[in-house]
């Protein structure tokens, strides 16, 4: 359940993962690698994400990169 603080809606880690379709491990890996901006934290130190953060995570999750590899069919 999202939390509203001073007119801003925040989502917890589990809510973000459910809404974006990514795993908790992926979210934390992206945060650690700097792919995503730092998250906000509540008084307990738990991460909280805004709607803008959620949109950024959704965009990253739906990004597709094409990588060409050899199929090993060369003689």
Question: Would you give an account of this structure?
Answer:
With 75 residues, this protein is α+β, with helices and mostly antiparallel strands. Helix content is 39%, strand content 17%. It contains three helices and four strands. A four-stranded antiparallel beta sheet has the order 1-2-4-3. A hairpin with a 5-residue loop joins strand 3 and strand 4. The longest helix is centred in the C-terminal third of the chain and has 11 residues. The N and C termini lie far apart (58 Å). The mean pLDDT is 88.
Which properties best describe this structure?
39% helix; 17% strand; 75 residues; 3 helices; alpha+beta
Q: Secondary structure elements and their pairing?
A:
Layout: E1 3-5, E2 8-12, H1 13-20, H2 24-33, E3 40-41, E4 47-49, H3 51-61
Antiparallel strand pairs: 1-2, 2-4, 3-4
Describe the sheet with the most strands.
4 strands, antiparallel
- N- to C-terminal distance: 58 Å
Q: Tally of extended strands?
A: 4
Low-pLDDT regions: none
Q: Tell the overall outline.
A: elongated
Helix percent reads 25-40%
- Mean pLDDT over the residues: 88
Count of helices? 3
Spatial order of the strands forming the largest sheet: 1-2-4-3
Quaternary status = single chain
Radius of gyration: 17 Å
Global structural class = alpha+beta
* Residues in β-strands, percent: 15-25%
Pattern of helices and strands? EEHHEEH
């Amino acid at each position: 359940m999202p939390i509203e603080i001073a007119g801003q809606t925040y989502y917890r880690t589990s809510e973000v993962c459910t809404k974006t379709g990514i795993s908790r491990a992926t979210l934390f890996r992206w945060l650690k690698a700097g792919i995503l901006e730092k998250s906000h934290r509540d008084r307990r130190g738990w991460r909280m994400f805004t709607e803008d953060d959620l949109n950024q995570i959704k965009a990253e999750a739906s990004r597709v990169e094409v990588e060409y590899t050899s199929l090993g069919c060369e003689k």
